[in-house]
Amino acid sequence: MMTITEWENHSVVLSKSFGGVGLVKHFAVIGDPIAHSLSPVMHNAGYKALNLAADYQKFQVSPEDLGEAVLGLKALGFSGWNVTVPHKETILPFLDELTEEAVRAGAVNTVKVDKGRLIGHNTDGSGFVRSLQEHMELDERQQIVILGAGGAAKGIAMALAPFQAQLCIMNRTPERGAELVGKVLEWGGQAHQEEWGRGAWLAQADCVIQTTSIGLKKEEYPFSLEGIRPGTLVVDIIFNPWETPFLHSAKAMGCKTVNGIDMLLYQGVNAWEFWLEDKAPLESMRKALYQALAV
Ligand code: NDP
Q: Which of 122, 165, 212, 225 could bridge 101 with an S-S bond, Cβ 3.0-4.6 Å?
C-alpha cells in the first residue's frame, strides 16, 4: 500500500516516463436517480486541495444495468466507487468480499478495487457516528431515540450498537421496527421498540435522531416533541431543506439541533480514507459541500 504522498510521487514518475500521460485515479458514484448527488463536488474539492491526480464522476445506473455497470467500472480501471439508492443491497452479489461494516449493515455504499477484487464496505453508519461524536460522547449511559427504521436508520443503529448506548426505535410500521431491534440485539447492542409517537421516551432521551423522509417537502411532523428536555441533541438526517419543520420545533423547545449534512460529509471522508488509506482533507470537503448548498 502507498500513502498519498508516495502515490503522488509515483504519479509524477509515471507522467515523465509515459511522455506526459500521468497516472490518474478514477472514482465515481452510481445510483438512480443521481443528478442531485453532491459527492463529486466534495471529492473533487478534496483532490484539488491535495493536488491529487484523481477525478470523481457520477453515473446514472438503472437496476437492470447494475451488473454490467460494475463490470464496466472495473474494466475501465476505476479504483473505487460509491453506491447509492437503489443499489446498496442489490450490489452485494456482484462483489468478491465484504468488510465487517458492510456485513453488519447488510448494505454497501463504497466499493474498492483491490488487486482486481471488489471489496464492499459501508461508511454510512460510521459517517453518522463520526458526525454525532462532534456533538456528544457515545457510551452505555446514553439514551438515543431513533425515529424510523428504514435503510438509513438501519445503518445508523448498527453503527451505534458497539457503543452499547440504549437505542429506542420508533417506526410507523412496527414490524420493521422490531426487525431492526432484533438485528441490533443480534450484534450485541442494546435496543427496544416504543409505539410510534407515544410514551415517555422523549423525556429520557439524551439524543433524538430523525431518520424518516418526513420533512423533505417541508411537511410538519406527525406528532409533537412535547416533554423533550431543553438541551437535548436533536438530529434530522435530512439537510435539504436545511432546517425541517421537525428541527425547527426542536429548536423552539430549546434543543440543540443538527441536520444531516455532516453525515453526508463523513460518509465521503470515510470512503476516501478507505480507498486511499490516508487522511482526507476534511475542511476542504466540508467547505465545498456547504458552498454547493449555498449555506
Ligand atoms: P427508506 O425508504 O428506507 O425508509 C423510510 C423511513 O421513513 C421508514 O422508517 C418509513 O416508515 C418512514 N416514513 C416515510 N414516510 C413516513 C410517514 N409519512 N410517516 C411515518 N413514517 C414515514 O428511506 P431511507 O432510510 O433510505 O432514507 C430516509 C431519509 O434519510 C431520506 O429523507 C433521505 O434523504 C435521508 N438520508 C440522508 C442521508 C445523509 O447523508 N444525510 C443518508 C441517507 C438517507 P415505514 O417503515 O413505516 O414505511
A: 122
